[in-house]
Amino acid sequence: MKHASSYQQTSGKGSSALWEKPAMISTLRVMQGVLALFFLYGGLLKLVPPDSLPGAALLAWLLAPLPKPLVSFTGITEMLGGLGLILPMSLRILPILTPLAAIGLLIEMIGAMIFIPFFYGFAPTAIPVVTGLLLAFVGYGCWVRLLTDSSDGRRNFRDGSLR
């Protein structure tokens, strides 16, 4: 038993060391910002009239096979997910919501990967696949950073101790 617990502690430290490097932290934050803007704008395009923003008419035409309530629901969830990618960790209020937002948007991208081939073929499926991989990167990176060393220094989620 002692060997198994020491292996878990060693492997946990090795994987978290990568996420403590300044370059990885910067990459993670940039990806959070880019994905947040991507989903905020995409969600806004789904909620506004087709002639109000650039790209809204094209998106309305592409999403015409779907029911309007589903498109509106998707727009709202994308906007909330985009805010969830940035605000909780930036404001240090419930930072666990950031990886959860990434997971929620990843589930939405899986739905897009299922929907797109039925109407448009397999080539456009690359967009939600790449976006999903980036969301997985952000979700995992934020989760590891929360587990090992919280950014405010008050709580270490791994051992449950206060610092």
Write the layout of secondary structure elements.
Blueprint: H1 2-19, H2 22-47, H3 56-62, H4 68-91, H5 97-120, H6 126-148, E1 155-156, E2 161-162
Antiparallel strand pairs: 1-2
Helix pairs in contact: 1-6, 2-4, 2-6, 4-5, 5-6
Protein name: DoxX family protein
Keywords: Membrane, Transmembrane, Transmembrane helix
Transmembrane segments: 30-49, 69-88, 100-120, 126-148
Percent in strands: under 5%
What's the shape?
Answer: elongated
CA(first)-CA(last) distance: 28 Å
Q: What class do helices, strands and sheet pairing give?
A: mainly alpha
How many extended strands? Answer: 2
Mean residue pLDDT: 84
Main sheet summary: 2 strands, antiparallel
Portion of residues within helices: over 70%
Strand order in the largest sheet: 1-2
Radius of gyration of CA atoms, rounded to a whole number: 19 Å
Uncertain stretches = 3-12, 155-163
Instruction: Return the string of H and E elements.
Output: HHHHHHEE
Q: How many domain modules?
A: 1
Number of helix segments?
6
Written overview of the protein:
- With 163 residues, this protein is an all-alpha fold.
- It has one domain.
- Helices cover 75% and strands 2% of the residues.
- The chain has a two-stranded antiparallel sheet.
- A hairpin with a 4-residue loop joins β1 and β2.
- α2 packs across α6 and α5 runs antiparallel to α6.
- The longest helix is centred in the first third of the chain and has 26 residues.
- It is elongated, with a radius of gyration of 19 Å.
- The two termini are 28 Å apart.
